[in-house]
Amino acid sequence: MNSKWLVKLSGTALAAMLITGCAANNQDVPPPEENPPMEEPANPDMEEEQDMNDIEQDENQMEEDTNEMEEDMDNNDQ
Description:
Number of strands: 0
Helix content: over 70%
Structural class: mainly alpha
Low-confidence stretches: none
């Protein structure tokens, strides 16, 4: 009779130790990295022109992609 109680208690103790041991998170979280400040452009007007050129290129690429998708859909319908 005593051995049954001993088995039950040791099983319960083992389960409790496994649960608490696996849930432990002792790892230190590293501090977030600081981003270096961005460099200021030498001439802000040149940056605006570059931005406008980039926007125009993106719009042209989107139009080309849209046209290709429409052509593909038309080819699939036939």
